Structures are given as structure tokens and as C-alpha cells.
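Q: Entry one of two.
A:
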Amino acid sequence: MPSKTKTTKKTASDQPMVMGSQADYDEFESAAQALPASEVTPMRADLQLALHNVKLGVASIEAERDRVEQLADVKVEELTELPRLVLATIFADTQIQRTAPASEVQTLLVRAAALRSLLLKVALGLVEAGLLPRAQIEAIQKGSGAPDMGRDCVALAAVFTKNAAALRGKHPLKAAQIEEASQVGTDLLKALKSGRARRPASGPVPGSDMRDRLWTLVVKRHDALWKAGAFLFGRDQADAKVPSLQASRGGRPKKAPANGPAAPTP
């Protein structure tokens, strides 16, 4: 009789960094542009956490889709596409021309090089053991330059995270090292986009307006999602079924960011 595989609960450090995509951004750009400037809400949130929570909320609503469609003024498709709208916001956030001094970029480069080397060596060993596909790792290995190093760190971290269950106990890497590689790679790519030059102390950050517009769409549609949850499950259960955008993974809401939206009233 085959032995049961022991499962372990994932922690936040085991979660891969999600980056969104140009396709997500393109899909919602026109709707974001159409928002009146007076309605735009500055984005001061953990977007990875928001993505996690909207997926939970949408799954709860999807399970009761027939009942939701009975609600007047509720556009079900707009609710179910919320995860992709958050991905569009994440992508927009990665495109912002943030600034970083040359010394910070150099620090990130050094750390990224060390992490890339570590993860790549382990990955190649797993390839030889037949535990990872050779073509995928060799594709990551190709290329050179600072941007490529950042992308390699993110890609390698994603490989280990995606295959965490199959590789458990078969390599020496710790979850914290994999998460750091993803974060350092992401930070390096953002720093390189800044052109290594400091922006003026005042004035908007280039690209932040579109990110804030997309985030405003997220907030508006999440309000509608919560109202649908209150209708389906009652107000007492709505927060559990449709968690707030910044509710912690354990269920308790984070401290609301400054200028955040008020709780919706169904």
C-alpha cells in the first residue's frame, strides 16, 4: 500500500512573486483612462496580497454564479475578471520609473549575481538527476547583462516555487533564499528602469497615474464583489467569503492604508 504523502502548509515565503503582463494591462487600459481624475485613488497597498484575496472572493462568487446573476446592476463578468485587473495593476506598478542611486543598483547586482549562481547550480544538479526539464533551465541560463540577471533570479525562483512539492527534500535551498532571489531580481529590474538617476523631490512619479487608475478600478469592482457576497452569504459571512483587499492571509485585516476607501454598504 503506498504511503501517504505528508503535506505542509505554505507560508508567505513560499509564494512566488507575481508580475502581471502587458496583455493584462492592455485589456483594462481604456477603462482606467476613462475614469474622472477626481475619482482616482492613490495606490498604497500590497498588490500581491490584494491578488490573493480577490482570487478567494471571486471563487466564492463563482460557486454561486446563478444566484449572482439575479442581482440587478451587477456585471458578473466584471467581478470574475478582478484577478486579471489586479495583475494589470501589478504590471503597471513594475513599469513605474522609480529612481535608485548607482550605489543601490550595484548592491542589487552583487546580491543578484550570488543568488543566481546559487539557484542555477542547484537547478542544473536537479536537471542531471532528471527532476527538472533541461530545456527550461538552459533557456534561463542563456543571456547576459544586468537586466538578464534580474530576470534569471525571478525565473529560477519561480521554477523552484512551482515545483516545490516534487522537489521537497531533494535540494539544499531554503524557502527564504528562493523568495529573496525573486525579490532581489524584481528590485533590480525596477532599479534599472529608473536610469540610475534620482528624480526631483516633488512631482508625480512617471507611470503612477495609470497604476492608480487601475487600482481605482480594482477598488470599485471589489466593492461590488463584496456586495454580492453580502447578498449571497449575509453580512456576517461576507468578509470571510470575500475578504477585503488587504486582509491578511490568516484572515485578519491589515491596518488600512492612508486615504483608503471606506467599507462598502450593500
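Q: Entry two of two.
A:
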Amino acid sequence: MRNFTIDQLSSFNGTNNKPSYVGYKGKVYDVSGVFQNGEHGGLKAGTDITSVFANGPHSEEIFAKFPAVGVLNEANNTVKKLLAANSQRADLILRLAIGIIFLAHGSQKLLGWFGGYGWSGTMGFLTGTLHIPSVLAGLVILIEFFGGLAIIFGFLTRLAALGIAGTMVGAAATVHLAKGFFLENGGVEYVFILLAVSVYLMIKGSGAFSVDALISRK
């Protein structure tokens, strides 16, 4: 089977006597029989329709009717999966909530804002009191600040959420698990919620209103 890049696929858009090809879940299908002038039901030939196909009336079994003519280049497909954003607009609420929380805490740790101790004070606490290696301590500070900022704008959301989820697992293991579950005792309750939202964003992506969605559409 032929390997297609996204750019190569785009030339098979059903115009100028070209066949109509679409990408779906890593494969390229010839849909010329149903795509008129390179379009069918709002879907455009020459594109990877994986992220938008679910919003249509058909199930994926329909692709058994079309010949597979190739596969999408793995590097391009991986990038597209990373940036793929679902169409849910309500996800913006979760993104803003967790993004603001981590940007605020990251600002305390990195810049000393909002009554925080800044870089040197936070590094002293993390390395001296919690005995976290300095490299990891620095990463925690940077992930909270830049990860929160990235999630607010919906840029590389899955990577940012992965970093934040990792810091929450670390926070639970080093501080909160020993204090039980409930928040009033310093337990893991609050960390658990933040971890759950981070995992949700890792799975679902950034949603419709995001930089990731804008890049993915282009």
C-alpha cells in the first residue's frame, strides 16, 4: 500500500479529474463513488476525517465499502492525533478551571506572586523538606506554570495535562496520601479531583475552542 503524507492526501480532493480520497484512522480510502466534486455530507476529500466523522450519520463500518488505497504517514498521523480536538464546547469550562488553578499555583512557585515564595524559596522547600531531586523540583514548578497556561489556551493540551497529572501523582505520593482522603486533614481529595480532570483532558483533548483545534483544522 502507498504511504501518504497529509500534504499528498490533500491533492486527491476530487477536483481537476483527481479521485476523491479521505483518511480515516490511519488508512486512506477511495471514496470517489459517493463524493461529488470532492465533497459529501460536509466532509471534504483530500483530508483526514477521523476527528469529524463521528459527528456524521454513519458508523465506521461504512468504510468496508470503499477500497483502501494506502496508509497515512505515521509521523503526520501521530502529530494529528496529538492535536486532534473533540467538538465539545463545554470542555472549555474544565480547561479554564484547571488551567487557572495551576497557573495561579505555578505563579506562586515560579514568580512569587499571590504570596508565593518564588523559584528559590520553592526549590528550597521541595529539595530540602520533601527531598525531591532538584531536576524534578524544577520541572514541577515549570509544569504547573506553563502547563496551566497551555491548558487555558488549549495548546498541546494532552502533553500539558500529562505533565500536570504526573505532578499530582507525585504530590499524592509525597504529601497527601499519608494524611488520608479528606481535604480538611490535608488528604488526597483535592489532588484526586485535579488528577481526574487532567486524565480527562489527556483522553479527550482540548475541545472546540482551543489552539489545538485551530491547528488541527488547518
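A: Comment on entry two: Residues 91-217 form one domain. The mean pLDDT is 89.
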